[in-house]
Amino acid sequence: MKKIAAIVLAAGEGTRMKSEKAKVLHQVSGVPMICHVVDTLLELKLDKIYVVIGNHGEEVTKAISDRNLDFIWQKEQLGTGHAVSQVKDKLKNFDGTVLVLCGDVPLIRSTTLKKLLDFHMTSDSYSTILTFYPENSTGYGRILRDDEGNVIEIVEESDANEEQLKIKEANSGTYCFNWKKLSQALELLNTENVKRELYLTDVVKIFSSKGEKISAINVEVWKEVIGINNREELANANYEMNKRILKKWMNSGVTIMDPNSTYIHNQVNIENDTVIYPFTFLEGSTIIGKNCEIGPSTKLVNSIVEDNSKITYSIVFDSKIKKGTLVGPFSHIRPGTEISENAKVGSFVEIKKSIVGKGSKVPHLSYIGDAEIGDRVNIGAGTITVNYDGYKKHKTKIGDDVNIGSDSMLVAPIKIGKGVITGAGSVLTKDVPPDALALERGEQVIKEGWAKRKRELEKKRQLKKKDKSKEGS
Ligand code: UD1
Ligand code: CA
Question: Which of 223, 245, 303, 351 has the fewest other C-beta atoms within 10 Å?
Fold first, then answer.
């Protein structure tokens, strides 16, 4: 089988994004655009993948450094033709096909690339171009064909005349080339165009003028090859990619109540019979087990949720929610937290870097930070682990079967032994041994009849006031 190498163009400035970062690093469904392109390519198991980098090249390299890729620097960005030329040294003795694609076309599928490659490999064309019919062809190169329908040229929008601008067939920026022929043609490129760039697309004209065969195949779903040059196109790409991801999960047995308000990142994993309610965002490397209920209005980032758990109106970051757990409504679970099996975290509770043991409950209005809570513990409403002394964070340890009274301040560092009961409203500053009762409050003061007397005095005052105002009138 003939060898195949791929070249991904990712050195451009992306001026139209008006951004401080590289265009190909802008995210589509939670991962940089370039990752989508490269990962799709990796599915094809080609011999080599070259990524041409330039603008913000270090950052681009970093984003995809864990994949098996070769990076080629294009120091000055003199156009897509110039970008491909940078790979010449590496491919000096290469005698095969190159697949060229752009780092800013993130929705392209490996099945489409495979079709393009298969078509090209069985034709004797110098080049096969992947073309499409976009709803709006603004910004794309137009495909020029002769009377017999043969492709003869790609004309860039900025160089096209009025007639050419009416052409609906556009260049997707994805092509296969006979590498030997391409490298010869690259030598003949010039900058006689509006942008003063070396256009890769001009090799088509070079081939056709010599009567060489150029093929083109049409992509089936045009939205797959939209190029991202500005923020509006980025939003469209995010919308399309999200739709694709939601469809994948629905097809694998996940119920999504409202696909229009559900956003799931590319790397998320969800098992079947889980139900996702509206306005839910599943981000990063989040993994959700079977039979869970997530949402409405919930955001999970880089978190694991095990089977049969329910999370409503809540936010969870970098945490683990184990089997059969209830979270929310209105809980904020911050990084490093583990909520164990069958536990419950309720309304207006914030938990940071803590473990909540099996079957334990933090049902209402609490802050738990840097704490280890044992199994079957009940944390009374309004309890706070006072973990910060203004300089350092300290730990709170609570043993199994503890019952913390409502409105308690647990001033860390503190250890509450197994089976302890603490009185409501206590400010606990010292460790409590197992099975003890701990209480900290001033003695209750009772003055009998005091409240009644105060009410009567107040009544008299009001009457006096009224009388005075009558005298005055
Ligand atoms: C390009 C095509 C156009 C096609 C469109 C499809 C050319 C001349 N035009 O236009 O026919 O319809 O893509 O989306 O090829 N890049 C480099 N180095 C450079 C210049 C660009 O690596 O010197 C990279 C960019 O980072 C980008 C890709 O090449 O990923 C395409 O460049 P861009 O400037 O976006 O080209 P378009 O104007 O979209
Ligand atoms: Ca582009």
Answer: 223
- 444 Cα–ligand 2 center, Å: 75
Q: From ligand 1's centre to the CA of 80, what distance in Å?
A: 6
Cα atoms in the 13 Å half-sphere on the side-chain side of 27: 11
Q: How does pLDDT run across 320-354, given as a tens digit for each residue?
A: 999 999 999 999 999 999 999 999 999 999 999 99
In this structure, the number of other CB atoms found within 10 A of the CB of residue 386 comes to 18
> Residue 234: what are its φ and ψ, rounded to 5°?
-65, -45
- pLDDT tens, residue by residue, 138-157: 999 999 999 999 999 999 99
- Dump the DSSP string for 344-388: EEEETEEEES-EE-TT-EEEES-EEESEEE-TT-EEPTT-EEE-B
Query: Quick one: which atom of ligand 1 is closest to the CA of 9?
Result: 22
Contact present, 114 and 130 (Cβ < 8 Å)? no
Point out the ligand nearest to the CA of residue 225: 1
Ligand 1 atom closest to Cα of residue 200: 15
Hey, whose CA ends up nearest to atom 34 of ligand 1? Answer: 12
294 in Cβ contact with 300 (< 8 Å): yes
| Ligand 1 centroid distance, CA of 431 (Å) | 66
Distance CA 212, CA 271 (A): 52
Cβ contact 188:158 at 8 Å? no
Q: Which of 102, 154, 190, 200 to mutate to test the pocket of ligand 1 (most atoms within 8 A of CB)?
A: 102
Structure-block tokens of residue 439: 């209480």
Cβ atoms of residues 357 and 343 within 8 Å: yes
pLDDT in tens, 442-473: 889 999 999 999 999 999 999 999 999 888 76
Distances in whole angstroms, Cα of residue 354 to Cα of each of 261, 348, 403: 31, 16, 18
> Locate tokens 């052409």: which residue?
167
| pTM (predicted TM-score) | 0.93
Burial of 257 (0-12, 13-18, 19+ CB in 10 A): middle
Of 74, 80, 228, the residue with max ligand 1 atoms within 8 A of its CB, to mutate for a pocket test, comes to: 80
Residue 198 is encoded by which pair of tokens?
């070396």
**Residue with CA closest to ligand 1 atom 28:** 102
Helix boundaries (H) for 86-221:
110-122, 162-165, 179-186, 202-209
For residue 321 the two structure tokens come to: 């929610």
CA angle 294, 297, 298 (to 5 degrees): 50
Burial label, 136 (beta-carbon count in 10 A; 0-12, 13-18, 19+): exposed
Digit-coded pLDDT (tens) for 383-437: 999 999 999 999 999 999 999 999 999 999 999 999 999 999 999 999 999 999 9
